[in-house]
Amino acid sequence: MPHTIALVGGTGPEGRGLATRFALAGHRIVIGSREAARGEAGAVEVLAGLGARAHGEVSGADNATAVADADLVVIVVPYTAHRATLEGLRDALAGKIVIDAVVPVVFDRGPRPVEVADGSATEEAAAILPASRVVGAFHNLSAEVLLDPDAEVGADVLVTGADAEAKQAVMALAGEIAGVHAVDAGPLRFSRFVEQITILLIGINGRYKAHTGVRIAGLDTH
Known about the structure:
Layout: E1 4-8, H1 13-24, E2 28-33, H2 36-50, E3 58-62, H3 63-68, E4 72-75, H4 82-89, E5 97-100, E6 105-107, E7 111-113, H5 121-128, E8 133-136, H6 143-147, E9 155-161, H7 164-174, E10 180-184, H8 191-208
Parallel strand pairs: 1-2, 1-4, 2-3, 4-5, 5-8, 9-10
Antiparallel strand pairs: 6-7, 8-9
């Protein structure tokens, strides 16, 4: 059964890339932004990239409207907007599966990690949203690859969380992206390692002019 998936802050490359892949899997996508016009413009970009390929419905809205009818919500805002965005949507996100894909990073002569008091952005999200089912996922996928609907992603998605049912739902969603395998990466406290791998990959990609990902060798899922 298709999901209705909201991407909060989804107008950037990562949000539009995930929207592209989820739409190709047949889900209904709503791209959210602080301003409805920006969300709508993001949806137009995604639809243009999808072209004549079969896909689910794609629309845009402000963040609050985007999450209202969604059963899965993906947070892809910059870390600087993370806390304020989640606090503003706390009531609207109650009871929903919230997938935090935010990486605490700043750029100062290259990517540098931001220290998070709660340990990771995902743990911070869980603390801000006690009534939501918070899962960490989709941090390590290349936006450039996601945005090319003909490209096989060829990477693993490391999924963290305490809610087993929510984690399985997110792993199933990840598995619908061509070339992706989902890996249970453990409880929320391991989210910091997953997020920091992204920072490492950003540096590697810059040096090698590449679009790398993560593969966990030795699993039966591959």
